[in-house]
Write a structure and sequence with these properties.
The protein is of the alpha/beta class. It has five helices and seven strands. It has a single domain, classed as CBS-domain. The longest helix is centred in the C-terminal third of the chain and has 30 residues. The two termini are 38 Å apart.
Length: 149
């Protein structure tokens, strides 16, 4: 299964110069736990980092820092792990495991942002594969039973 088949194409993004307050408000408005920090190059969005609600909680809120005085660039994870839209599902799983992340921006051939995939997306896709395999086994057993009668 290719990443392009299961990733979300609707990615919540933010500029690196936005304040943490704006980032938190964007997360709330989009109902997401992360934003991909981007730069624009030739009208394409290029991922430069990723910021999560956890980053904001631990690096800003818990430290008592004013969210208006800190930018996304100050807190984001730089050079985020990514995967290509033509990568295989298990390659993305391996990248997540090695890098210790739960989300990967998905990039096209020119490095442009085309989607995002989360551990939840992967769990859902694997669950669907397991269900289909179980159904195939059930049909096979039913056919065998019919043949014996």
């Amino acid at each position: 299964m290719r990443i392009a088949e299961i990733c979300s194409r609707d990615v919540a993004c933010i500029g690196t110069t936005a304040s943490i307050r704006v980032a938190a408000l964007d997360m709330r408005r989009h109902h997401v736990g992360c934003l991909v920090a981007i730069d624009c190059r030739d009208a394409e969005r290029i991922p430069r980092g990723i910021i999560t609600d956890r980053d904001i909680a631990i690096e800003v809120t818990a430290m008592g820092i004013d969210p208006e005085s800190v930018t996304v660039a100050d807190v984001m994870a730089r050079s985020p792990a990514t995967c290509g839209e033509n990568d295989k599902l298990f390659d993305a799983i391996d990248t997540m495991r090695v890098r210790g992340v739960r989300r990967l921006p998905v990039v096209g051939v020119r490095g442009q942002l085309v989607g995002i995939i989360s551990a939840g997306d992967i769990n859902e896709a694997l669950g669907m594969c397991v269900r289909e395999l179980w159904q195939a086994g059930s049909r096979s057993r039913a056919r065998e039973s019919e043949g014996r009668q």
